[in-house]
Structure formats: C-alpha cells, structure tokens
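Changelog-adjacent note: as of this version, every example in the card shows the full chain rather than a window. The one below runs 207 residues end to end.
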Amino acid sequence: MEEESHKLLLRSIRLEALGDGIFAVAMTILAIELKWPELKDTSVQAFINAFHELSPRLFCYFISFVVLGIMWFGHRVMFEYIGRTNRYFIFLGILFYMMVCLVPLNTRFLAENSLQWGTIFIYGLNLSLCNLTLYAQWVYGIKHKGLLERELPLQVQKEAKFLFLISPVVYLFAIIISIWIPVISLGIFIITPLLYLIPNKLDKYLP
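Full-length structure tokens:
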C-alpha cells in the first residue's frame, strides 16, 4: 500500500508539449529552406525564371507543411484520450518525433531531385514511418487502460485506425508507381493530404 502511494503519475501534457515544439520547429525549417534564386536583373522575365527555379521547392514545401499539419492534428486528438504516460509510451513518442524531424531534410532532397525514384522512395518512406510510429503509440496508449483519460468509443477507434493507415498504403502505391512514372507519384503526394479534408465519422466528436 505504501509503494502505491509513492508511484509517480506521469501526465501526458509534457510529452504533448514536446511534440508541439518539434512540429513548430520542423514546419518552420520547411519555410527557412525556401530561398529565392539570385536575380540577374529586375525584368519580368527574370522574376518568372526565378519563380520557375523555386517552384519545385514550393511544391514540396506545400505538401510537407500540410502533411505535418495533419499529423499534428492527429497527435493533438490522441492526447484528448490518452492523459497519462509510461516509459514505453514515451519511447514510442520519441520514435515518432524522430521521424517528424527528418521531414525537412527529405523534403529538400525531394525538391532537388523531384523525378528520381530514390528520392520519392525516401520521402514516401519517411512520411509512412511518421504515420506508423504515431499509430503504434496510439495503439499502445488505448490498449493500456491506465493511460486513458476518458472512455474511447469503438467508432473512434475504428475510424482512427483507418485514418492512420490509409496514408502509408497510398505512399507505398506512389513509391511503386515512381519506378515507371515519377510525375504521377508526385501527384499522389498532393492528393493524399486532401483525403483528410473529406468529412468522416470522427467529425461528430469534434467541437
């Protein structure tokens, strides 16, 4: 009984705060990586050429920023249900944040080699591992009732599973397609975040 009274109650708020900071830094780095090419003169054509040169970076910046925003939202909602942590839950969180921190690096790699199979593979793998590590953390949290803050409806559990796993499946398809038609893979990377804008069953649980 005395041992029980000395047990620590590890609230998830500190881990969530760490995640918020990591997302903020990663998304800021995406913007910092954008640099206008040096203009040879001030003509309209020079600006058009500069924009054309910058466009691959803008394209990849848009995709990665939106994807990280969606992941942050899923991360945020997760902590509405999971209010406590333990060492294993924290470790899974660290793995997830590790993957998130690699997104700016691989975004730049993709921007500089947009139509190469290898860069598409690395970028797609990075985003997939972000989703899968976050899903692993979510599954661990909901399977250990001592970590839950509130009751988890079965519908939320099923819909969350679908939303966590749909992206890795689509990214795998994009990686395979890139072997033959890389430009289609880039289109898939654009479309995938838009899937999360479609109304789903979780909306009724949101304010």
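Structural remarks: The mean pLDDT is 92.
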